[in-house]
Each structure stands twice: as structure tokens, then as C-alpha cells.
Amino acid sequence: MTPFAVATALMDSLSGRGGEEQAGPVECRVRVPATTTNFGPGFDTFGAALRLYNWIVLRVGGSEPAGPPHPMVQEAAAAYARAAGSSSPPFECTISGDVPCARGLGSSATVRAGVLVGLNEVRGRPLSREQLVALGSELEGHPDNVAAAILGGFTISTGGGQTRVPLGSRLEFVAFVPEMEMETKWARSVLPQAVSLPDAVWNLQRAARIAAAICLRRYEELRGLFEDRWHEPARVERIPGWEQIKKSAYEAGALGFYLSGAGSTLMALADGRGAEVAEAMTRVASSAGLTGSCLQVKAENRGAKAWVRHLPRRVVHGGRKHVS
Ligand SMILES: Nc1ncnc2c1ncn2[C@@H]1O[C@H](COP(=O)(O)OP(=O)(O)OP(=O)(O)O)[C@@H](O)[C@H]1O
Ligand SMILES: N[C@@H](CCO)C(=O)O
């Protein structure tokens, strides 16, 4: 059954049309990738999706949900309903997966993107992916994570739109994920509210070259472009061993090194030397007293992906309806 047919059947079911042919509940499973953002000087602009996922599962039209969904889920559903022009039927939502929370890998974006993509899928896709990115960006307060999570690949976002390019399979992301959490709310509260002209020019020049090198797949030109003068200095004060870990990653052959999103993950980019970079970062983090674990992961070019399943439908026996 196509998503549109599922949606039509679901709406018939919810409106009581369809008699004995009524559809049962619908389950939509959405796989949403983790995201790494900023890439040093590209604050709130650059994002990339990673092959590390959360699963957001929506069950629409079944029995009454056991309790209210997570506030982030409720907010996303309300925003979707406003944009799509009708209220959502009650649904249950479960969140699971491998994306760690409050580590700068876009966990909150996976939840918001998953709800938006899932509800849209169940409704027969009345909104475009770009409209979903715009909605998710409003909910997040910045567009970089949600654009990459929904569209996949490398994204350059302005809030009003984004440019997306696929990433090559030879590029590796080496993430040292500390046990220590860093909440985005805190990490944004310590940002300087003004930057000097030389620092603005410094970041702009490097961000433009990073975008060009990635779009042209000239990854070797990324070396030396990741030094940020806007957001990292205030944030990394909380990360023991930051400078030493960065130095060790570059010495092991990293192309770039930056604070992923709002932290706390320290991210290196590598092209064929990921294992050496991971080993160096882990060793130096340990001697600096930063506990955590290291992941080597490739980019995900596909973005959020949804599967809709029609659960056993209602059966009418002697005028009484049962939901299996
Ligand atoms: N998977 C999740 N399930 C439930 N709540 C979540 C989940 N992910 C994030 N949250 C909620 O969102 C809050 C904010 O997440 P936050 O933005 O700090 O982390 P993040 O999205 O992992 O990091 P970043 O945005 O820097 O990539 C968390 O403290 C938590 O309340
Ligand atoms: N660009 C955002 C990502 C965090 O979610 C920040 O650095 O605050």
C-alpha cells in the first residue's frame, strides 16, 4: 500500500467511514541519522549526517495512548499540525537508538525530525522535505542539525533554505564522545554576543573554503581550515585536554578537528587514517582525564527514512468493533 493509500485508509478509519473495510492503526518507523555541525568556523551553518541512528516510531490511530508524549514530541506534532492545516490524531511515540544525548551529535534533532517526517508520511506527504526542514529549524532554534538529519549528506543552511551535497565514502568522522554531557542551552548561553571584524573575516574565509573543498571533494584542502574564533573558545574551556587532543589528532593525520555541535564530542575528519587518529585521540584523552569512547563513522547521504506499516485492521463482529 502506498503512503497515500495508507493515509487515506487511516483517515477513513478515524472518521468512521469504510464500514467493514476500515483500516486499523498505522505504524510509521523513522530512522534518523545523527548529525555533526559547525565544522569549526561554520557555526549554525554546516551540518553532516552520520551512519549512526535513532529510531522514532509513531503509532497512529490505535488505542488511546498510555500517557502524553515527551514535550519535544508534542511541540513537533503541534507545529506539524499548524503547517499541514489540520490537527493530528492522537499517537504513541517511542524513541530508541544509538545517538547519545547532549553530546553535540544532534539527538534532539533526530526526535524532532523523526516526528515531522513520520506524521508527514502517514498523511501522504503533503509537505515537502524542505518545508519539514524549515519547521524543524524553528523548533531547534537553528537549522544546521535538522537540515542534515532530514536531507542527509553535507548541508549548508541559512535558515531560509539550504544547499546539500553528498559526501564521499573515503571521508571518515572520528568522534571522541565524552561521558560528560554539554547541554545546547548552556553552550549557547556562553557565546560572545559580538565578534571583532578580524575574527569575523577569519571565520568567513575559512568557512567559505571548507564549503568549496567539500563540494569539490578536494578533502586534502581542508587541512588547516577548522580554527574557529566565535563559539569554540568559550565552550571548550569545559573540556579537559582539548588542545592536547587536537594536537594529537593532527599529528596522527587528521584533516580537521572541531567541537561537534554544541559539544561535548570532539570531532576529527580523516581520509584513510581514521584508525590512527582514533587511537591518538583516545590515548591523549585518557591521559588528560577525559573519559569517553571513540567512534569511527562515515557520512550518511540519505537522511531520514520512513517505513509505514498497516497494523491489523478493525474487524466487525455482530456490530461490535475490536482493535487487534
Ligand atoms: N533522544 C532523546 N530523547 C528524549 N529527549 C531528548 C533526546 N535527545 C535530546 N533530548 C532532550 O533535548 C535536550 C537538549 O538536547 P541537546 O540539544 O542539548 O543535545 P543534542 O541534541 O544531543 O546536542 P546538539 O544539538 O549539540 O547536537 C536534552 O537535555 C533532552 O531533554
Ligand atoms: N550550531 C548549534 C548546534 C547545536 O545544536 C550550536 O553550536 O549551538
Automatic annotation (TrEMBL):
Lineage: superkingdom: Bacteria
Q: Domain (GHMP kinase C-terminal): give its ranges.
A: 211-283
Where would you say this protein principally sits, based on its record? Answer: cytoplasm
Tell me a GO biological process for this protein.
threonine biosynthetic process
The broad enzyme category this protein falls into is transferase
Catalytic activities: L-homoserine + ATP = O-phospho-L-homoserine + ADP + H(+)
Q: Where is the GHMP kinase N-terminal domain?
A: 73-153
SUPFAM superfamilies for the chain: GHMP Kinase, C-terminal domain (SSF55060), Ribosomal protein S5 domain 2-like (SSF54211)
Q: Which residues bind ATP?
A: P100, C101, A102, R103, G104, L105, G106, S107, S108, A109, T110
According to the record, the signal peptide region is: none
List the EC numbers from the record. Answer: 2.7.1.39
The UniProt entry's GO CC annotations, sorted and at most eight, read: cytoplasm
Localization, per the record, is: Cytoplasm
Give UniProt keywords alphabetically.
Answer: Amino-acid biosynthesis, ATP-binding, Cytoplasm, Kinase, Nucleotide-binding, Threonine biosynthesis, Transferase
The UniProt GO MF terms for this protein read: ATP binding; homoserine kinase activity
Q: In which pathway does it act?
A: Amino-acid biosynthesis; L-threonine biosynthesis; L-threonine from L-aspartate: step 4/5
HAMAP family associated with the record: Homoser_kinase (MF_00384)
Instruction: Report the family membership.
Output: Belongs to the GHMP kinase family. Homoserine kinase subfamily.
Q: Which NCBIfam families match?
A: thrB (TIGR00191)
Q: Tell me, what does this protein do in biology?
A: Catalyzes the ATP-dependent phosphorylation of L-homoserine to L-homoserine phosphate.
What name goes with this protein? Answer: Homoserine kinase
Organism, per UniProt? Methylacidimicrobium tartarophylax
Gene name per UniProt: thrB1
